[in-house]
Amino acid sequence: MIILALNCGSSSVKYKLYHWDKRETLAKGEIERVGVAGGPANHREALKQIIGSLPAVEISAVGHRVVHGGEKFKSSVLINDEVLTAIKHVEDLAPLHNPPNIAGIEAAQDVLPGVPQIAVFDTAFHQTMPEHSFVYAVPYEWYGMYGVRRYGFHGTSHLYVSRRAAVLLGKPPLETNLITMHIGNGVSIGAIKEGISVDTSMGMTPLEGAVMGTRCGDIDPAIVLFMIEKEGFYAEELDAILNKKSGLLGITGKYSDRRDIEKAAGAGERRAELALEIEAYRLKKYIGAYLAALGRVDAVVFTAGAGELNWKLRASVVQGLEHLGLVLDPKRNEAAVSREKEALISADASPVKIYVIPTDEEIVFIEDVVAILEGRYETHTHFVYSFEDPKYKRKT
């Protein structure tokens, strides 16, 4: 069984061709500049270009990353007309992400007619959150009329690392409490209680939560009104500022890449130093909040680009949390800078374990697709993945 996994952005298409029976990646890559001068005219042309470059194999199914599934989709699903209509119905909840996701689905249906298409949702993992976690303190009618609530994102990443952490702890997932920290250009923190998501830092959109590369994260909502009054911003302008010109970039005025910020901080640039301090402080506060929410925590897990590679950031985040049970082993932490190897970075005596677990969203994605094709798929609260086996070995 051969699966083509697609992640369609507004001007790019990432792809991976995977041989399930051999557990082998046959091809992967990215087409950029979609709809931009010098690139493919649209997603259909990009997909035709991808298909033309792939090995001559029969594709069994296409799996699509869909950022926002609203409340309707609590698990991955085979795409039909009704499903596609429902995805379009929540397009306004993710105007930057869902339209290209939809364009990719329609392009694949056109270029690969008759091949099953399956949607895997970023939001699905967090649909277990209780009402007191996802309802905002705004007029309740907004929830019923427009779907204004917390949804959460990076679901496949939080799912993968939480299941792997349970393996490392030697506990069943449904007996495991975790704080999972996905720290890339986008950042989200998950509170996992007895194996399921009960809270997460991102909200109705990926803008809420921690300080990110270019996103502001949590701010006083009145700032938006204040700046409209001061600068006369339109909604589109503020959306661009808060999503693309804020976060670490907004603080430094120059950099969104943490490597550049660390270099600048080392050279004495105060705003770079401040950006690092703010980021670590805000992440530390989320750990404290979720420790309180969960009551008992077995482990804190760092994942994604900076979470896996930036040992200085990890050290800053957990510094001073020893009284809460998080005791870092500095040597283990400095040695854990791999996108492939899982590592314990807490001291042996630490009551709460601290792990670095490289994420693998694609394997979640592919296993969902295969299970749906084989008619054995269940929602993630009941489904058992291959990587939950203690003998599982990750393949790159």
What this model shows, in words?
A hairpin with a 3-residue loop joins strand 1 and strand 2 (12-19). The protein folds into 2 domains: 2-121 and 364-388, Nucleotidyltransferase, domain 5 (2-Layer Sandwich), CATH 3.30.420; 170-356, Nucleotidyltransferase, domain 5, CATH 3.30.420.40. It has helices spanning 43-53, 81-89, 98-111, 131-134, 141-146, 155-169, 222-231, 235-244, 247-252, 258-266, 270-294, 304-309, 311-318, 330-335, 361-373, and strands at 2-8, 12-19, 24-32, 61-66, 77-78, 117-121, 178-183, 187-193, 196-200, 299-303, 343-344, 353-356. The protein is 38% helix and 17% strand. The chain has 396 residues and is of the alpha/beta class.
Counting DSSP H or I runs of 4 or more residues, the number of helices is 15
Number of domains: 2
CATH second-level architecture of the largest domain: 2-Layer Sandwich
CATH topology of the largest domain: Nucleotidyltransferase, domain 5
End-to-end distance: 18 Å
The strand order across the widest sheet is 3-2-1-4-6-5
What letter string, H or E per element, gives the SSE order? EEEHEEHHEHHHEEEHHHHHEHHHEEH
- Shape estimate: globular
- The CATH superfamily title of the largest domain: ATPase, nucleotide binding domain
Q: What is the assembly state of the chains in this entry?
A: single chain
Largest sheet: 6 strands, mixed
Radius of gyration: 21 Å
Mean pLDDT: 93
Number of strands: 12
Which consecutive residue ranges, at least 5 long each, have pLDDT under 50? none
Structural class: alpha/beta
Give the class-level CATH name of the largest domain: Alpha Beta
Bin the helical content.
Answer: 25-40%
Beta-strand fraction estimate = 15-25%
